[in-house]
Amino acid sequence: MTATMEKAGKLALICAISAILLGFVNSVTEPAIAIRKAAELKAALSSLLEDGSPGAKEDIMDAGSVIARYPVEGVGGWILEFNGKGYGGDMKILASYDEQGTVLDVVLMDNAETPGLGKKAEKAEYMDKFRGTGGAAGPVPTTKGALDAPDSVSGATITFVGIASPLHEGSEYIQSLGDK
Length: 180
Prior knowledge:
The protein has 180 residues and is an alpha+beta fold.
């Protein structure tokens, strides 16, 4: 009984020291991580626009996977922020739209997709299949069958659907705004 109590005490001490160290490391790195993420977001928002600049973020409630929007100042249109569901869990997606709901550009931000498969969606050329779709340009492809090259998403269908479905919702959301 005493040996068991001794082992339990050592384990509790190790857990307590580990928790204190993790808390210390978190307190040191958290501000730097927040600064890096803010810089990445600013760069991503700018990369989505050829003209104009992103306005202030507006949080959106009850709009499906659309969680925020940024008005595009100077030329009109919107940048939408989505929470997509991929193979590795939640994916943060940013997309710019014109005022009719046509997808102009897309960036995959935070994600935990499979390296070599779902991670291909981080590349700019992956998003070519979505650019110029939605709104008056025709529907956003949400199935592999709707693509000209369905093999381009082989092995990463869940990632593709996790990006395509929010983009389709975003196009419909922009169209529902009308002239707002």
